[in-house]
Amino acid sequence: MKTIDSRFLEDLSSAAKTNPRRRQHHNLHDTLDEPCQRLLIAMEPGSYLQPHRHQLFPKPELFIALRGMIAVLLFSDTGDVTNAYALSYTGGILGFEVPPGVWHTAVSLEEGSSFLEVKPSPFKPIPAEDKAPWAPAEGAPGSGGYLETISAQARSLCGI
């Protein structure tokens, strides 16, 4: 039996705040080849995940807000933000499923944000051809400025 309570999410958020990547995940699945991957992810503002897609190994990804607010951004093949969805546990959009092959990323819009991510197994690292060639890699020069730009676009598109 696994339970998720407020204290667990607070501890996960505390770990994210001290993590240089500004995010922390906790697997609910016991092995990487279980039929369904279920991850709790705490993400702080300033956490950058290079936009990517799941085309080589097609799979949808479901995001459900648990605390705070995150935005899921969608992109065209040339890197233009085509849409953004603000997910918040307090109302509005609670969850969003990204179809296979769609360029996307997530950004934290509030401190203490956390969400549940669900996707089919098995786990496979994102291959180079599914990482956005028009966006900097995580930790690369320019990634901080790019994150600021897409976070501002997300806020604007979501009316925040």
Structure report:
By secondary structure, the protein is of the alpha+beta class. It has a single domain (6-158), classed as Jelly Rolls. The chain is built from 2 helices and 8 strands; from the N terminus they run αββββββββα. The protein has helices at 6-18, 143-158, and strands at residues 23-27, 36-43, 61-67, 69-75, 81-88, 95-98, 103-108, 113-120. Strands 1-2-8-3-6 form a 5-stranded antiparallel sheet. Strands 5-4-7 form a 3-stranded antiparallel sheet, with helices on one face. β4 and β5 form a beta hairpin. The N and C termini lie far apart (38 Å). The mean pLDDT is 96.
Question: Nutshell version of this structure?
Answer:
The chain has 160 residues and is an alpha+beta fold. Helices cover 18% and strands 33% of the residues.
Summarize the helices and strands and which ones pair or pack.
Layout: H1 6-18, E1 23-27, E2 36-43, E3 61-67, E4 69-75, E5 81-88, E6 95-98, E7 103-108, E8 113-120, H2 143-158
Antiparallel strand pairs: 1-2, 2-8, 3-6, 3-8, 4-5, 4-7
